[in-house]
Design brief:
By secondary structure, the protein is mostly helical. It is 60% helix and 1% strand. The chain has helices at 45-59, 61-82, 87-90, 95-127, 135-146, 155-171, 190-202, 208-212, 221-238, 267-288, 293-330, 340-350, 368-379, 386-393, 403-411, 415-433, 440-475, 490-498, 509-516, 522-534, 539-543, 555-563, 574-582, 588-598, 605-645, 654-657, 674-684; strands spanning 248-249, 265-266. A two-stranded antiparallel sheet has the order 1-2. α4 (95-127) runs antiparallel to α11 (293-330) and α19 packs antiparallel against α25 (605-645). The longest helix is centred in the last third of the chain and has 41 residues, at 605-645. It is globular, with a radius of gyration of 31 Å. It starts with 44 loop residues before the first helix and ends with a helix. Keywords: Membrane, Transmembrane, Transmembrane helix. The chain crosses the membrane at residues 309-326. This is Transmembrane protein.
């Protein structure tokens, strides 16, 4: 089951209760729009419920998303459906199949989440918290410390000076800020960021259930982080040109660009990494007994880069080892309880034939610190060698394994061991029921698992992109990171839709929220419109959001008052709107009202539509997975195996009833004895 990409803690949903504490220091200076947000869907109760449900899943983080999609999508339906396999033949529930399906599904899916998490936790505990930080970021932090005046008199002083250096690196990488600029003059208070981050690190989490239910707790870790991210988005939007991803920060030097497609990092992730790295660095520095940071940082950087790379490899290796072992756990029976009822029935019917002849078939199957430091030198991103490139491709994101590892695990470590184990049981079943080997369970696995893998890797991705492209066309708001090139042929476009590595990806709720809100002025709104127009959005449709109801206070009604009849021109452009604004004819009252609508989660129709599309997509995805992968594929396998042996009336299929049925009626063969005919049939290549 595919786990959808989630940017947790990038924004939290809004809630009216939050108004009670919005003047708190942590949330000061924010607009009334708080993020992914509560969505007003009017009378559409079902859609409103779906939006709230998927927002609750997202607030629960990766664990909640994984659990909902994997359990409801494949594990539970496949386990439940297994009890009816062969019931029409035996008259009994197939509890053996239930047990095997349950063990297989509930062990395989969670292992790709829990095993890497366990490895990462052990590595971070015994090797240092920096093992939870990517190699590139460790390198960047080391460079920043080396080039900064870091105070190491105590841990708090170190954290403050380190955080200041990292944050300044990120802010001075905004294309609207020069090194000579004063950040305060640009509206950026670094000390405020540091205070909030330290407060967040010392705060308690409000807990999984309160977070899922979006219960505001102003002094909680999650709500403080929300305020920090909102502040960052506003600062970046005010100090960058164009329309970049406002949730991302850049702290890498350009000289590393050759070794990575994208050196930007989610600002929320950067905050987490700063905390882990600073705790680990200061503890290691104290243990070292050194007095000069410069003498220590180079060795620490190499050691931790090597440790992180080793952790990435260990996450893949341990997960692979466990997944190879899973088939031995769930195959509690020597034969497959899903195919046994049909095979046994066929064997009983076949025994009635006097010319039955059995076959005997045999199967012939077949010092740590120094090491980490040396390894760190090899994976150093600045080397630009094949080793460092390979290390970059294997970089895990938190407990999410890298995509190359995922491909390896889902094929070589899921499919292959299952096939090996199924081959053994097919041989055992054939010995039990007589006759040559029938690869029934093996064929079941090939049909079920290859289809499942292709669906997860490509179909689910393609469905999301296709729906987002449809939504973009309908609303006029671009909901994907890129668009399809009109110059590409239909096959190239199709591949860009289903390819997980394509630049055309669905924008998550966090990205949509950052793009469509937190507007300080109309210039930022115009930049959003220009970005949308450049990506082939439709400004006319965008401005007409809410025009059907035309109710007072809708985006369209305010746009009409602000810009006049120009909004009703189907070819309206950003230049037309800018000319109106520059003409001085626009009432400031309506400008503020227009900004208020876009900055309010309950009123912003653009964000509302994006949330609806997102909820609909995830619901449809879950429905497809549940219906097709959960119930459909197991049923197809059951039907294929049954039709192989039995007819609709449960009589034996003729091709298995008489071994002579495939022998051509040549006169020269008429006098052959049954066993001689069967020998000739084997010569022809027929196994029955």
């Amino acid at each position: 089951m595919k786990v959808q990409n989630i940017h947790t803690n990038a924004f939290s949903s809004s809630n009216n209760k939050r108004e009670n504490f919005k003047k708190k220091d942590y949330l000061s200076g924010q607009t009334s729009f708080r993020g992914v947000g509560a969505l007003s869907t009017g009378s559409n109760v079902v859609l409103s419920g779906l939006v709230k449900f998927w927002e609750a899943v997202e607030r629960g983080g990766l664990a909640a998303s994984f659990t909902i999609q994997d359990m409801l999508g494949t594990n539970i339906p496949r386990t439940w459906a297994a009890k009816d396999v062969g019931k029409d033949i035996t008259g009994k529930n197939n509890w053996g199949a239930v047990l095997e399906n349950g063990l297989r599904e509930f062990l395989t899916g969670p292992s790709m989440f829990l095993v890497p998490a366990g490895v990462l936790a052990v590595s971070s505990k015994y090797g240092g918290k920096s093992h939870g930080v990517p190699v590139q970021t460790i390198k960047d932090f080391g460079e920043i410390i080396s080039n900064s005046n870091i105070d190491v008199t105590n841990k708090e002083a170190f954290k403050k000076s380190f955080y200041e250096s990292v944050l300044k690196k990120a802010f001075y990488n905004f294309d609207g800020i020069n090194q000579a600029d004063n950040l305060l003059d640009k509206g950026i208070d670094v000390n405020d960021y540091i205070k909030r981050i330290l407060d967040m690190e010392n705060a308690k989490s409000k807990g999984l259930f309160k977070n899922i239910r979006n219960i505001p707790v102003p002094d909680s870790k999650e709500d403080i982080l929300d305020g920090i991210i909102n502040m960052f988005v506003k600062n970046k939007k005010a100090n960058t040109s164009g329309y970049p991803d406002f949730l991302n920060a850049l702290i890498s030097d350009s000289k590393y660009a050759k070794n990575s497609k994208n050196l930007e990092v989610r600002f929320s992730s950067l905050i987490e990494r700063m905390g882990k790295y600073s705790d680990d660095f200061f503890a290691a520095f104290e243990r070292s007994g050194k007095e000069n940071v410069a003498d220590f940082v180079e060795q620490f950087t190499k050691n931790r880069m090597g440790g992180r790379f080793a952790t990435n490899i260990a996450m893949g290796v341990f997960t692979a080892a466990f997944m190879w072992f899973i088939p031995k756990i769930y195959t509690v029976n020597k034969t497959n309880p899903e195919t046994d009822p049909v095979r046994q029935k066929a064997a009983e019917l076949k025994s009635e034939y006097s010319d039955k002849s059995g076959d005997n078939v045999s199967f012939k199957g077949g010092g740590i610190s120094k090491v980490m430091s040396d390894l760190g030198s090899k994976v150093d991103p600045s080397n630009f060698n094949n080793f460092s490139k390979a290390a970059s491709s294997l970089e895990c994101k938190g407990i999410d394994i890298a995509r190359p590892m995922f491909y390896t695990l889902i094929t070589g470590c899921t499919l292959v061991p299952r096939l090996i184990q199924s081959a053994k049981r097919d041989i055992e079943s054939s010995k039990k029921n007589g006759g040559p080997v029938q690869w029934d369970e093996t064929s079941n696995i090939l049909r079920r698992d290859i289809t499942t893998i292709l669906t997860i890797l490509f179909a689910m991705e393609g469905l999301g992109v296709a729906m987002a492209l449809f939504g973009s066309k309908k609303s006029g708001v671009v909901l994907t990171s890129d668009i399809l090139n009109k110059g590409d042929n239909i096959f190239k476009k199709f591949w860009n839709v289903i390819n997980p590595e394509s630049s055309v990806k669905v924008l998550g709720k966090a990205e949509n929220t950052a793009q469509m809100s937190n507007f300080a002025n109309m210039d930022q709104v115009m930049r959003f419109f220009e970005y949308n127009q450049e990506k082939k959005g439709n400004l006319y449709k965008l401005l007409h959001s809410g025009s059907k109801s035309n109710k007072e206070g809708s985006l369209y009604s305010v746009a009409k008052k602000l810009f006049g009849d120009v909004v009703d021109d189907t070819k309206v452009s950003v230049d037309d709107l800018r000319n109106k604004l520059n003409s001085g004819e626009c009432d400031k009252k309506y400008i503020q009202e227009f900004l208020d609508i876009l900055n309010d989660a309950d009123k912003n129709p653009l964000l509302g539509f994006a949330n609806k599309i997102n909820a609909i997509f995830q619901t449809i995805s879950l429905g497809i997975v549940t219906g097709f992968l959960g119930f459909g594929l197991p049923k197809i396998n059951e039907i294929v195996i049954r039709n192989k042996y039995l007819k609709k009336d449960y009589a034996l299929n003729p091709k298995y009833a008489d071994p002579n049925v495939h022998i051509p009626d040549y006169s020269i063969l008429k006098n052959l004895q049954p066993f001689e005919k069967q020998t000739y049939q084997y010569f022809l290549g027929n196994k029955r």
